[in-house]
Write a structure and sequence with these properties.
Blueprint lengths: L2 H11 L5 H19 L2 H9 L4 H7 L13 H6 L5 H5 L1 H21 L7 H29 L2 H33 L8 H14 L1 H9 L8 H14 L5 H25 L2 H11 L2 H7 L2 H7 L4 H30 L1 H25 L3 H28 L6 H20 L2 H19 L3 H12 L7 H16 L5
Helix pairs in contact: 2-8, 2-9, 2-11, 7-8, 7-10, 7-11, 8-20, 9-10, 9-17, 9-19, 12-13, 14-20, 14-22, 15-20, 15-21, 17-18, 17-19, 18-19, 18-21, 18-22
């Protein structure tokens, strides 16, 4: 490899030496840890405690908090928290508040007994889900406000590495701790699970320390503040002051983010929303039937777990990292196109797997390539969604956009089983590939007709700081 090529590789990788990348890595860990504690790990604990499957099924509804987090995302953008906002700023203040609430809630779960008081455990689990979803909202806003668009894929990749690592610790790690406290797996021991959750509460200190040591991003809210004050003044002539203040705040927090989005993009906003709602259709439609396909092909649970959790996880993270490097070099739209193309094409590999049937080496290769493609596409898509938001409304707009991206694909995916029953797996995977190609046309249209998000003063300053700090390459919080 020539000196020139080595220099280019070094320059491409240097983006991961930036201190903001480390911050997002650690915040990703803080975000990923609580999810499994109210999901699969909690289900394991409840079943081992002898709780019936019906009740465990009801517990899964707690995770719905993550799907409706957009409902309270305006609070993160517009509501100042006493003490927290004053001393830490809007983003870090909300982050620390959510993290402290998580520590209290996870500690509460660790002190609960599902056999004697299942309702108490459910209440603390609901607190964990709410605080965790709130933390997700504010970390997304923090990431968007902290760096220019060209760094967003790298930050998203670091976030995913931290998030996935925390999920492993919250599942395999929690089970290992419980087994270490009580090696006898045949007898239920409450203390072992309480110890595991107590350790998980302690691990939330990673996020708290990161939040305290990180730098508050610049949030440009002057325009929103001015409009809120103007509306409040106008309404105070007709209504009491507290009513005028409430209406003006609600309008600024909930309505103005929509107006801002459509004002900036005009008619092309519909085209952008169409792209967002369709971008992940190929992998979501395929993914909903992936595990069913593996079982029908004769693969054992241990084989599926090893291939998907080890090779699949590694390749997803590698793909996300590659996406961050490529985006920094070639720009968002080109890598967005590349990611969509790779995801659509790799679905054809599953059609080939369906033709061959049971073959572990082939499945390993197929899952590895598919997850690498998904990693690239996800990194690019997160960067694109981030570029569409405005600084003053980033929490609200990103929460809404990220919810829109799942609605249509999830609806279409609901017909996957019926399609397979009627036409078989080979036709299903070919179809899942074909429906991904129109997305490429949408990307071309958006690139041609939709105005690219203009960088504000905040991003210009960040870009300048990035170049200086990149030269220093000081990976510290």
């Amino acid at each position: 490899m020539s000196v020139t090529h080595l220099s280019r590789v070094k320059d491409a990788l240097s983006i991961y030496c930036h201190k903001r990348v480390l911050v997002l890595l650690l915040l990703g860990f803080s975000a990923g840890l609580p999810l499994m504690l109210v999901f699969s790990t909690l289900s394991f604990w409840l079943r081992e405690a002898g709780i019936d499957r019906t009740a465990i099924g009801y517990f899964s509804w707690i995770a719905l908090a993550y799907g409706i987090k957009w409902a309270w995302s305006p609070l993160v953008d517009r509501l100042s928290l006493p003490f927290f906002t004053r001393f830490l700023g809007r983003r870090r203040g909300w982050m620390l508040f959510a993290q402290l609430l998580l520590v209290v809630a996870i500690f509460g779960m660790s002190q609960s007994d599902p056999v004697k008081d299942l309702e108490r455990l459910a209440l603390f689990a609901l607190m964990v889900a709410f605080a965790s979803a709130t933390q997700d909202i504010v970390i997304d806003a923090f990431r968007i406000d902290s760096a220019p668009e060209k760094m967003q894929a790298a930050l998203a990749a670091a976030y995913q590495v931290g998030y996935r690592s925390a999920m492993i610790i919250a599942t395999a790690g929690a089970l290992t701790i419980a087994a270490w406290v009580d090696p006898n797996s045949e007898v239920y021991d409450l203390a072992s699970w309480q110890t595991a959750y107590l350790v998980m509460a302690g691990l939330m200190s990673v996020g708290i320390i990161t939040t305290l040591m990180s730098r508050e991003p610049v949030v440009e809210s002057k325009e929103a503040d001015a409009k809120e004050a103007e509306l409040k003044l106008a309404l105070s002539k007709k209504y009491p002051k507290f009513i005028a203040a409430g209406i003006s705040w609600l309008y600024t927090a909930s309505i103005l983010p929509f107006i801002d989005f459509f004002k900036r993009y005009g008619r092309s906003a519909v085209l952008i929303l169409l792209l967002i709602s369709c971008y992940r259709i190929s992998d979501i439609v395929m993914g909903i039937m992936a595990n069913v396909f593996y079982v029908d092909m004769g693969f054992a649970k241990s084989e599926i777990a090893t291939i998907s959790k080890v090779y699949g996880l590694i390749m997803t993270l590698v793909g996300a990292g590659a996406g961050g490097i490529l985006l920094a070099r070639y720009g968002t739209m080109k890598i967005l196109f590349l990611g969509a193309f790779m995801v659509a094409v790799t679905n054809l590999l599953f059609a080939y797997q369906a033709m061959i049937g049971y073959n572990v080496p082939l499945l390993t290769m197929v899952i590895s390539i598919d997850n690498f493609s998904a990693g690239v596409a996800t990194a690019a898509f997160i960067a694109y969604l981030s570029s569409l938001t405005s600084s003053g409304y980033s929490a609200t707009q990103y929460a809404l956009l990220s919810s829109i991206m799942l609605l249509f694909p999830k609806f279409v995916a609901g017909f996957s089983g019926a399609y397979i029953d009627a036409f078989g797996y080979i036709n299903f995977f070919v179809g899942a590939s074909i429906i991904g190609f129109p997305v490429l046309g949408l990307i071309v249209l958006v690139q041609k007709y939709a105005p690219h998000p203009s960088h504000d003063i905040r991003n210009d300053k960040l870009a300048t700081n990035t170049s200086v700090e990149g030269e220093k390459q000081a990976p510290k919080v």
